[in-house]
Amino acid sequence: MGLRVDIDALPITEASDEDHEPSAAGFRSENEGYMHACGHDSHIAFGLGTLQTVLDSDFSGTFKVFFQPSEELLGGGKAMAAGPHIDDVDYLVGTHVGLDHPSGTVVAGIDEALAFSRYEITVTGESAHAGFAPNEGRNAVQALADATSNVYGIPRHRDGTTRVNVGDLNSDNAANVIAEKATATVEVRGESDELMEYMCDSVRRHVDSAAQAHGCEAELSLVGEAIREDSDEELVDLVADLARGVDGVSSVRRRASAGASEDVTYLMRAVKENGGKATFVGIGGNTDGHHTPTFDIDEECLLPGVTVLSETVLDLLSRPS
Asked: Which part of the chain is the Peptidase M20 dimerisation domain (predicted)?
């Protein structure tokens, strides 16, 4: 039996206003420029609380808690799924707090996480004096600017949701120099793995074409990815049934859409490919907007969350292997 909780923070400076509870109560992030802006600190609490509950029981079998790093970069899930510890897991439960669900709500199966790829783009041209001899240069900035504009024009796909976004455009370059190098980060998403690949192929084509048009070269390096994997019906039913009897749970939804991307899907798929079952559980938490400086959770969600997860784990551990 496995429980996956992601634990990484984000490069966001936490609000210091007195109306921000962590600041007023003295538990604002101590590491300036970084904070838990997605509730992953509560995930650590879910993992430790569930682990303690299971340890205090008379369970039989093997229980593993996967404290996963690097979910925000969408790299940790794939790396953890490639390790040996997932191989003997028959059932896997992942969890996330908030996701626009209020306190007291449990979602037994979060589905439709968008498949995702993130690339670092490097465009290389040739420098020259921008006033004296611009014709001798090959402008990497102009090539990257055209590529950025062009990828936003990729047609949406009739088979489902697709997304593209470019950020972190940079050229450490003076205004009087034709830029030799420019970099950016691009991410694409799709409702299925196939739609994500469609977006990847389209981005590569547009970036390469823009670079060639300006006599430059382009390189795309994959730095993060996630796949789509939905929750198993059997575990959705189990979590929903157990959650209805938990104090502090006022609403149970069987399924809901993730709306973004998640790399717990790699662990879920690994378990399924080995003949097991998996689900991704949402614990409502009255959060302020995810990935914002004012993010905070309603701590009233912690105990019901631990209880739902613990009861699910103990039920599954009681089953014959």
From this structure: 118-211
Q: Are 101 and 107 in contact (CB under 8 A)?
A: yes
pLDDT at 224: 95
User: What's the confidence (pLDDT) of residue 44?
Assistant: 99
Closest alpha carbon to 241 in 300, 318, 312: 312
Q: Which residues of the chain have pLDDT under 70?
A: 321
**CA–CA distance, 317 with 238 (Å, rounded to integer):** 13
Helix (H, G, I), strand (E, B) or coil at 315: helix
Residue 144: which of 216, 198, 202 has the closest Cα?
216
Rounded-to-integer distance, Cα 284 and Cα 139, Å: 49
DSSP 268: H
User: How many beta carbons lie within 10 A of that of residue 290, not counting itself?
Assistant: 16
Phi-psi region of 309 (alpha: psi -120 to 50; beta: other; left: phi over 0): alpha
CA 283 to chain centre: 16
Please report the pLDDT score of residue 320 as a whole number. Answer: 83
For 207, half-sphere exposure in the C-beta direction (CA atoms, 13 angstrom radius) is: 24
Contact (Cβ atoms closer than 8 angstroms) between residue 97 and residue 202: no
171-199 tens-digit pLDDT:
999 999 999 999 999 999 999 999 999 99
CA–CA distances in Å: residue 78 to residues 41, 46, 63, 278, 290 = 21, 22, 20, 16, 23
d(CA 3, CA 313) in angstroms, rounded, equals 8
Q: Please give the Cα distance from 4 to 266 (Å, whole number).
A: 11
* Contact residues for 100 (Cβ-Cβ < 8 A; gap 6+): 259
Domains within the chain, CATH numbers bracketed: 2-69+85-113+229-284+298-317 (3.40.630.10), 115-226 (3.30.70.360)
Q: What is the DSSP letter of 302?
A: H
Task: Provide the token pair at 118.
Answer: 């993130």
Say if residues 272 and 229 touch (Cβ distance below 8 Å).
yes
Strand order in the sheet with 91-97: 64-68, 2-6, 91-97, 277-283, 105-111, 251-257
Supply the pTM of this predicted model.
0.92
